[in-house]
Amino acid sequence: MATLTARAANPIDSLAQDKRVARALAWLDKNLDWITEQQIAITEIPAPEFQEAARGAYVAKLLAASGLDVRIDSVGNVTGTRTGASDKEKEDAVLVVAHLDTVFPAGTDVRVRRVNGRLEAPGIADDGAGLAAVVAIARAIEQARLKTHASIVFAADVGEEGEGNLRGIRELMNAYNGRVRAAIALDGAATDYVTTVGLASRRLELQITGPGGHSWSDFGAPNPITALARGIVQFSRTRVPEEPRTTFNFGVIEGGNSVNSIPALANVKVDLRSADDGELSRLENELRRSFASAVEEEMVAAVSGHGTLKLKIRVLGVRPSGKLPADSPLLMAIENVDRYLGNRSRLEPSSTDANLPLSQGIPAIAIGAGGQGGGSHSLDEWYDPAGRELGLKRAMLTVLAVAGVQL
């Protein structure tokens, strides 16, 4: 991974010394407990994929209390706009976004537990930390009466996780077509990285159907679950390169009705990722070949006359790739902010809301919102708010540097 390099002059020094910016920074320091309480409240509102409305309504109230023009669009995105002060630049927008949705299904216990100074709950860091940061930065700027040249759009979007297929950020980029000067995604907690490369990903569902039957009287009929297992084993032998890094994951398997029934249907959902689009295409082709071969093998093994299997492949989502240029003003801004704060960070690829604007040639990064977290996407997810002010200040100063503070 590349390491952020220092530059001789640092414009963030003078930005942070502005009295209004200093007041905003001080507000963050004084209100850390309030920010954490909002994070807990947000996390405890369930937000499974495609069911983010209740959490979005709560965030909308918080943004409205910061004096923003708040709207909820047709897909469920919440936006709060702070209009720019410059007639020439206010049509430009700096987008600050965190995602509402989680990977956890309806019915998951999302109550937050305090254990030895940590907060534990599904979604507490990803992206409870990011949503709390969006609210906190909006409130700090309002309390300090800061004016920026470009407008700032604070957003809580839908569909970042799983099968959401980035539908929230897609809608935002369409709505602000041609106006987004830069996009900053706040995702998770850590402050030791800057995501400047959007990892390409493809998510597919492979479904195998057959005649079904009774486990005793129809023994020998082709079994969709067995065929599915053959396909998983075949594909799992596929070699993937370390560079460009490429991964795959079988995340969900479903099928069957009872232990003594030959299932009529089985399916599996697969996540493929790579830093290279060509490698990703190769991986998808191998996946399709492996499962087609597995269906053929199962039919050969089955007793003739018991019916056939059919394979259906459905694309659940495609995340485009993109890369922030090394000379981007946005990258220079976050570098300078890190220098000012004494924060060491590295550049790394990831799959976030930043993928979409990066794929369109729009400057974008993803960064953590501060504090520490772990166990992402698991029921044991945790967040430690100690030191979260570093991430909050890092994000806010970057936003202000790109939007421009009116003197």
What secondary-structure arrangement, pairings included, does this model have?
Elements (H helix, E strand, L loop, with lengths): L11 H6 L1 H12 L1 H12 L9 H12 L4 E4 L5 E5 L10 E7 L13 E3 L2 E3 L7 H16 L7 E7 L9 H9 L4 E7 L6 E6 L1 E10 L3 E2 L9 H13 L9 E10 L5 E2 L2 E10 L2 H25 L8 E10 L2 E2 L5 H13 L4 E5 L4 H5 L4 E4 L4 E3 L7 E3 L3 H16 L4
Parallel strand pairs: 3-6, 3-7, 7-17, 8-16
Antiparallel strand pairs: 1-2, 2-6, 4-5, 5-19, 8-15, 9-13, 9-14, 10-12, 11-13, 18-19
Helix pairs in contact: 2-5, 2-11, 3-5, 7-8, 9-11
| Poorly predicted regions | none
Tally of helical segments = 11
In CATH's first tier, which class of the largest domain applies? Answer: Alpha Beta
Report the oligomer: single chain
| CA distance, first residue to last residue | 38 Å
Percent helix range: 25-40%
Write a brief caption for the model.
With 407 residues, the chain is α+β, with helices and mostly antiparallel strands.
Characterization of this structure:
With 407 residues, this protein is an alpha+beta fold. The chain has helices at residues 12-17, 19-30, 32-43, 53-64, 128-143, 167-175, 224-236, 277-301, 329-341, 355-359, 388-403, and strands at residues 69-72, 78-82, 93-99, 113-115, 118-120, 151-157, 180-186, 193-198, 200-209, 213-214, 246-255, 261-262, 265-274, 310-319, 322-323, 346-350, 364-367, 372-374, 382-384. It has 2 domains: 12-198 and 321-403, Aminopeptidase (3-Layer(aba) Sandwich), CATH 3.40.630; 200-318, Alpha-Beta Plaits (2-Layer Sandwich). α2 runs antiparallel to α11 and α7 packs across α8 (277-301). The two termini are 38 Å apart.
